[in-house]
Amino acid sequence: MAIVKKLQTAEGERRRLEIINPANMETIGEIEALSKDDVAEALVRARVAQKAWSRLSFKQRGAYILRALDVLVEKQDEYIEVILKDTPKTRNEALAMDIYTGMDSLLYYATKAEKFLKPEKRPLHGLGGGMKKLEIHYKPLGVIGIVSPWNAPFILSLNPAIQALMGGNAVLIKPSSATPFAGGLVGKLFEEAGLPKDLVTILQGDSTTGQALLEVGVDKISFTGSEGIGRHVGITCAEQFIPCSLELGGKNPYIVCADAELERAAAGAVAGNFLNAGQYCGGNEIAYVEKSVAPEFIRLVKERATVLRQSNSGEFDVGALYTADQLKLVEEQVAEAIAKGATVVAGGRRNPELEGLYFEPTVLTDVTADMRIVKEETFGPVMSIIAIDSIDALVEEINASNYGLTA
Question: Is there a catalytic annotation at residue 315?
Answer without folding.
Answer: no
